[in-house]
Amino acid sequence: NVLILDFGSQYTQLIARRVRELNIYCEIHPYNNLPENVSDFKAVILSGSPFSVRGEDAPHPDLSAIRGSKPLLAVCYGAQYLAHFSGGEVAPSNTREYGRANLSFVQEGEQFFENITKGSQVWMSHSDTIKKLPTGAVRLASTEDVENAAYRIENEQTYAIQFHPEVYHSTDGKQLLENFLIKIADIQPDWTPNSFVDATVAELKEKIGNDKVVLGLSGGVDSTVAAVLLHKAIGENLHCIFVNNGLLRKNEFSAVLEQYEGMGLNVKGVDASARFLDALAGESDPEGKRKIIGKIFIEVFDDEAHKIEDAKWLGQGTIYPDVIESISVNGPSVTIKSHHNVGGLPDFMKLKVVEPLRMLFKDEVRRVGASMELDPELLGRHPFPGPGLAIRILGDITPEKVTILQEVDAIFINGLKENGLYNKVWQAGAILLPVQSVGVMGDERTYENCVALRAVESTDGMTADWVNLPYEFLQKTSNAIINRVKGVNRVVYDISSKPPATIEWE
Ligand code: XMP
Fold first, then answer.
1. Angle at CA 207, nearest 5°, toward 203 and 210?
2. Which of 20, 141, 267, 296 is the most interior residue, by most CB within 10 Å?
């Protein structure tokens, strides 16, 4: 178990990603809110920070419980912090210390730099520099501009580096983390999806006992994997609810429901389409639509949950990035928002929350799903927004518009699958525009709807670029849509990146 103390760097999550890639479990905690069981962690990593150690508001935590008693790796701000308070000197740097650099000196015979040689590329991002090393420090590496790029403290397992091993551009970054965690801190790299499943199932059994759990399935990866883990732990005491809000993809409700039943889950499908569509009638504001859908969902879910006698727990598919965003709200990170999945429980539901995936990143959820032999097609599904087609029908929503868009979307998505393009795209869908245009079909003039197709590449949805789909594919798709979907006479392809556009149109 590794503890990462977050000083607010934009790269803190990346440190966790790299550590997990070594099959070592780690947790991120804000520097000003240490977990109670600090002594259980086998090593500690201090993150970077947007602050200067010399600044008045800078994080200055008490590390006496950690330093000297545990292997400690201080990155960037962390390295400066150790220097500043232990007899060293930190000052603004006068040379360029952003971006790539190469190690011009590496101390020989150091376990920390095993398999890393002079010339190795590292990534710097700091405006202060360590002018003088702290007491008892030995310099381990330099770059042309940064003399004290790495050091260790004698008679301690304390290591410090000015560069960022977690970013992709530090080519030996993973090796360095491996040297520190496996060779120096002597941690076993035994954290795998299988070990996670075994440990989590045992933990859930112990925590939940014979209580009943209610969980809302969405058809997405997270809620499905969470449900399967809970099902392994408590079997029929897990009651799943899958709500049709009338804004899902074509045939999605019945197909996914069948799939859930096939997996042995105790699931109830609730078709509340009419209730959602009635409530949405006449609403054309995007945020207004989201609010209505959120409210009705809670009402429907609550009605259903009340039918399950004595339910004590609410299961959720919350994942780690959501948790980090919400726990850091009062911590040091600058770019945070609270997330709808966390703490979003309405008071009247009075259930305890259980979130088996709250420590996993998205790709880890997929690996855990794969290790439980979930259908690869399910695990590879594109993300789909909670409000569904409501935010892809621009303007007000009618059942007729939903049907048109479902047909268009199905032609596009099935086409991607049939042409081996689906897995090359991060997210795709169709948008029904509030635009009518003139066309000609046979000898008739038409005046009908226009749809836009959107397919993007992304890793996390935060930034995205449009996908260069083959012209021939677009041509076939456009023909199929116009010929087969009544009410559509024009198809356009969205070639905007995010930013400045967003993935969804609303
Ligand atoms: P944008 O449009 O902001 O979308 O670039 C980024 C990602 O978030 C999804 N999205 C939502 N998901 N509720 C959701 O559950 C929403 O209201 C919502 N709005 C956007 C979007 O599909 C994309 O994956």
1. 115
2. 141
**Closest ligand 1 atom, CA of 498?**
5
- For residue 299, count other CB atoms closer than 10 A to its CB: 14
Tell me the two tokens of residue 381.
């599904």
Report pLDDT for 278: 98
Give 94's pLDDT tier (boundaries 50, 70, 90).
Answer: confident
Q: Do residues 379 and 369 make contact, with C-beta atoms less than 8 angstroms apart? A: yes
Which atom of ligand 1 lies at the shortest distance from residue 501's CA? 5
Ligand 1 near 502 CB (within 6 A): yes
Q: What is the pLDDT of residue 348?
A: 46
What is the CA(466)–ligand 1 centre distance, in A? Answer: 16
| CA dihedral of 339, 341, 342, 347, whole degrees rounded to 10 | 120
Q: Rounded distance, CA 307 to CA 471, Å?
A: 52
pLDDT tens per residue, range 212-237: 999 999 999 999 999 999 999 999 99
Q: What is the pLDDT of residue 346?
A: 56
pLDDT in tens, 369-418: 999 999 999 999 999 999 999 999 999 999 999 999 999 999 999 999 99
For helices 286-307 and 273-280, give the axis angle rounded to 10 degrees.
150
Identify whether 377 is a catalytic site residue: no
Is pLDDT at 177 greater than 90 in this prediction? yes
The answer, yes or no, to whether any atom of ligand 1 lies below 6 A from the CB of 344, is no
Mutating to test ligand 1, I would choose from 245, 458, 504, 506 the residue with most ligand atoms within 8 A of its C-beta, which is: 504
Q: 397 by DSSP, 3-state: which?
A: coil
CA–centroid distance for 211 within its chain: 30
Which of 254 and 350 is assigned the larger pLDDT?
254
Angle separating helix axes 193-208 and 221-234, nearest 10 degrees: 60
User: Please, what are the domains in the chain?
Assistant: 2-184 (3.40.50.880), 193-379 (3.40.50.620), 398-493 (3.30.300.10)
Q: What angle do CA 98, 61, 113 make, to 5 degrees?
A: 50
CB 452 within 8 A of CB 400: no
How many whole angstroms separate alpha carbon 80 and alpha carbon 82?
Answer: 5
Is residue 466 within a helix (H) or strand (E), and if so which, with residue range? strand 465-466
Cβ 427 under 6 angstroms from ligand 1: yes
- Per-residue pLDDT band at 97 (split at 50, 70, 90): confident
Q: Taking the model in full, what pTM does it have?
A: 0.79
- Interatomic CA distance for residues 306 and 376, integer angstroms: 34
Over pLDDT 70: what percentage of the chain?
A: 95
CB atoms within 10 A of CB 371: 14
Gap between the Cα atoms of 272 and 355, Å rounded: 26
- Does residue 346 have a cis peptide bond before it, meaning omega lies within 30 degrees of 0? no
